[in-house]
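B., you asked whether I could sanity-check this one before it goes into the benchmark set. Here's the sequence:
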Amino acid sequence: MKLSNAVYWIWLSQVLGYNNPKYKQLNELYDDISEFYARGEKEWRLSGVLRNSEIYDLKKASFSDAEKLVERCEKMGYKLLCLDDREYPDCLYNIYAPPAVLYVEGYLPDVDNVLTIAIVGTRKASHYGVSNSYKIGYSLSKYGIYTVSGGALGVDCASHRGTLAAGGITVCVLGCGINYRYLMENAGMRKAITQNGAVISEYPPDTPPKPYHFPARNRIIAGLSQGVVIIESGKSSGSLITADFALDMGRELFALLGNNSANNEGSNDRIKEGTAIPITDFMDIIIAFRGKYFQDEPKESEDISLADIEEIPVKGKHRTSKQVKKPAPKKHAQTIDDIIDEDDGRKRDVTVTGDAKRIYEYLTAEPVHVDKICSDLGIPIFKVLAALTTLELRQLVKSEPGRYFSII
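And here's what the prediction gave me:
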């Protein structure tokens, strides 16, 4: 990350605001955005990108305020991801108005190379909506799929928590500064997300949530994803804005089949008009991406404990927020071939095949990071994660904090 360039992008955003396509235009005109700043007013006019009023405001904008903001983010441990950074996701860069700067707490995963699904819906979710959001987030994560949502009450919260319960990776996109005391019911959840994913925003620290921030925020949710799932969306729900962004960006759009309640009018309409693929569970999403991300026949997920569903905050219901605990894995019956002498420490003679077999034979009792597994074996990360999930479900390997794995 070019920290020095973050200053120039923040300086620009002080004038041009957010959700502005001009950032992308400037990035493609100049090899380095610092050149645009250094050449001054004459260059700003010759670029043909800015209006006279914007040039006038740029002349007055405080560059020192941008420098102070960069320093503050460094002290708070926030990363600044800018349009001209190599780590900036291509899928987000290629939307109409990519953010000039993303403020990141945690680690933004490789959404360009791993299937990433957004799960969105109403804040006033029913038990059906909450439980399905949780189940889909959980089950997709067991296939190594990343999830994205907005951190709100109801559907968003349930999908994030389901992902966390499965030990998966999720990204929370906020419509305010990432340090702002927004929805304190979900503060613990957001902290947990940063341990194995990211909380991000295009708005600087301390920015309060404004009503117009959330529709703009939804373009980022859609932009980071290859598919968007709508769960319980009324006719005027903000999740339909995310759905429209997804269609404009050429993403796959899914909608959970629901009853005829007002909570489902918007999502059911998308199904009836043919713009959304109807789904009943996560497997419909897996099947839609077969051939591109999945070569093998999909396998049913394990049963999911929903013991913590009642603790998920929903608008209008005052519940105590509690971090979802990872359910204990089901014990699988062993065959004769699976039995080992526990004293000699040898691996079991198991009947796994393909990538799962290679990875199992590679692993030892010493934890190994998933990136090293990919590098040493030359297997793409989405295949490694899918294989590790299979091995975990069979209780052959265990995951440890920081995405490390070892044999059991």
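One thing to flag: The chain has three domains: 3-77, 116-311, 336-407. Otherwise nothing jumped out at me.
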